[in-house]
Design brief:
alpha+beta, four-stranded mixed beta sheet
Length: about 400
């Protein structure tokens, strides 16, 4: 249905015209419209025909404002109950090519949407979209529009409307007719310039390569050069033959300024780096570059760490000591029981408690650990079951390790 809305609303936009009508500054307009209105699937409302009107004023030939009114008679799909929807508000239009008969435009606005099934519900609605006017003459045009509407009452909904209609402009100033430019004046044919025989090219260092193309203009006298005027380098080591004391250096060997190979560097001194403990290697596999649940539970509504969970935190603390460049986040999560704000604050206190334990007991720098409470916003299981809620009440660690 929503694809059909777009096709119907844009059907007139493919037209072209040679008529002289255009969008006029200072003009008023009235447009009866109709089309299709599509609801988001989760709303449970049937897509239906929409009827409405637009009343507008062009502030300039590019910028205009329209008052909007729409009516849709739909029904609730689950119960077949009739529902009346009204939309009203205003929108600004920005016209492209205002002096032509085909005038596309962008639109954005705000208003209200009212649902009436006996009890009226009114919500604010934002809309934006595109449209086009096809002028037949100065006082009549066709129009087509597509709008994306956004509003919320229990959650945010996205609707689409596509419409076509008639456009009746009146008043305003007609654009001035552009004067026809005079025909160009033919220029007199000038005689060709005299032929000048150029002087022989200059070769300052007398190496046989003119200065204009000589990349090495100060080559010493008698030195053999290549086609670019630079001294020949037979072994391609970057040192010219007349300065090269080792003229047959193998290709790719680094040389000094006299063309001889650079002596090898002294052997490096081996540095023995102590290996990380087996326990820290296992901890690194668990906590590095992915979220991992820390096996710790708190009393209901509390953030105090129980003594029987300290061995689990010791593994994490030793891992951070043996990987001093590891940085990351301790995140607290809850299920959806209780208020959202209360759960967020509780999860933050628990994350802060874990961070404080690590910094106080293992000397971990505080700037290496970020504590963040997410409350019930990031569940990993279904909160409709006790098992799912237990999984969602968790503390996670996620560190980047170098």
């Amino acid at each position: 249905m929503k694809k059909t809305l777009v096709v119907v609303a844009l059907s007139l936009c493919a037209a072209a015209s040679t008529a002289s009508a255009a969008n006029r500054a200072g003009s008023f307009s009235f447009s009866p419209v109709m089309g299709l209105y599509g609801y988001q699937d989760s709303q449970g409302l049937a897509d239906r025909l929409m009827y409405g009107a637009r009343a507008g004023y062009n502030i300039t030939k590019r910028i205009g404002f329209e008052g909007v009114f729409d009516y849709v008679k739909t029904d609730i799909e689950s119960t077949s109950t009739n529902l009346d929807m009204y939309r009203y508000g205003g929108q600004f239009l920005y016209h492209f090519m205002p002096d032509s008969s085909f005038v596309p435009y962008l639109a954005a606005g705000f208003g209200g949407v009212q649902f009436d099934t006996g009890n009226s519900i009114v919500k604010g609605v934002y809309d934006y979209g595109v449209g086009a006017k096809f002028f037949v003459n100065d006082y009549f045009a066709f129009r087509a529009d597509v709008r994306h509407l956004i509003y919320s009452y229990d959650k945010t909904y996205n609707n689409i409307e596509g419409l076509i209609g008639l456009h009746f402009p009146f008043g305003g100033t007609k654009p001035a007719t552009k004067p026809v430019p005079p025909p160009p004046v033919a220029k007199a044919v000038e005689p060709p310039p005299p032929v000048v025989i150029p002087a022989p090219p200059k070769d300052s260092d007398r190496d046989g390569v003119p200065d204009a193309t000589d990349r090495c203009p100060d080559t010493p006298a008698g030195v053999a050069v290549d086609q670019y005027g630079c001294p020949v380098d037979s072994d391609k080591d970057g040192v010219a033959d007349y300065l090269d004391k080792c003229p047959n250096t193998p290709a790719g060997v680094a040389v000094e300024k006299d063309g001889c190979p650079v002596p090898p560097p002294p052997a490096p001194v081996a540095v023995v780096v102590p290996a990380a403990s087996a326990a820290s290697v296992v901890a690194a596999e668990k906590y590095c570059s992915k979220p991992a649940v820390i096996a710790i539970q708190f009393d209901s509504g509390k953030d105090a760490i129980k003594a029987n969970y300290e061995p689990e935190l010791k593994v994490l603390g030793n891992f951070l000591k043996e990987y001093p460049k590891a940085k990351g986040e301790i995140s607290g999560h809850t299920d959806n029981v209780g208020g959202k704000e209360l759960n967020q604050k509780l999860s933050q206190r628990r994350a802060d408690s874990i961070k404080k334990y690590l910094t106080d007991n293992f000397g971990i720098a505080p700037d290496r650990i970020t504590a963040k409470g997410y409350g019930p916003s990031k569940p990993v299981a279904d909160n409709k079951t006790a098992k799912g809620k237990a999984k969602n009440r968790r503390i996670e660690a996620n560190f980047t390790c170098e």
